[in-house]
Amino acid sequence: MSDMRIIDARSRPPIAAFLPDRTYVNLERTLRDVRARGWRPTPSMERPELDRYLAECDKAGIVRAGIPARAPNRWWGGQGNEPVLAACAERPEFFFPYAAVDPFADAAESVAGLHERGARAIVIEPGIADEPAYVDDPRINPVYEACQALGLPVLLMGGGETGPDLSFSDPRRFEQVAIRFPGLPLVNVHGGWPLAQAALGVAFRRPNVWLLPDVYFPGLPGEHDYVLAMRTYLADRFLFATGYPFCPVQATVDRYLSFGLPDEVLENVLYRNAARLFGLDPQ
């Protein structure tokens, strides 16, 4: 593809929103995780500086990056929405924000205000709340309802280290949310991994479900299944994302290009799908 433009739908660059959390504070642990996934850390990952990160993005063809806030919690940290909104306000041509809510703290009332402040989606991570809960916990319904009313996508953590045990990644629970709120775009962050086939089955049945495997694809078991889904029914609901700094920018782009996907599918996955879902400039 020539003149390739890419939207990284989920990235955590070295900014104030993330530097105090364990991803950067315990950098050696993060880099071990990177190597365990089969990647080689880049200079910007080994010596985190925003300019290095931005240079790597520019070289790889990434023109926009979605930045997910995280509600403070005792498992992963989280600095809330303000530093993410501030970073995106400083570089609105490149960064765009996803605001986070604690679904058990009167969050439904805050959704409209966050939308007005520029949030392109709402992040909900019930499995890593101070008291972990499943994504289909009925107490979260008011937040889902508020997002559906606004047409605001939800980035719902549905795989990987999304809770104390593997049951928190169960795609059948994700499906229950999709059934209750058929008009709500639900993005399965981490793609349901390692239950990849079940998560892809849910996306086949539920047209409001999107897949964003980020740090669990490519390079890990299930890769073939995600690629096959991209080639077929998920061509317009699969989102490219690096999950930086857990995956290197250029190498991740190169792996997507190596799959031999048709140009139309690549353009959708690398750019158009995110531009459409998050209301970004389609040009």
From TrEMBL:
Domain SRP54-type proteins GTP-binding residue range list: 153-166
Gene3D superfamilies listed in its UniProt record: Metal-dependent hydrolases
Swiss-Prot/TrEMBL keywords: GTP-binding, Hydrolase, Lyase, Nucleotide-binding
Pfam family of the protein (one): Amidohydro_2
Single GO term (MF): hydrolase activity
InterPro entries: ACMSD (IPR032465), Amidohydro-rel (IPR006680), Metal_Hydrolase (IPR032466), SRP54_GTPase_dom (IPR000897)
GO BP terms in the entry: SRP-dependent cotranslational protein targeting to membrane
Keyword Ribonucleoprotein: no
Protein name: Amidohydrolase
Organism: Acrocarpospora pleiomorpha
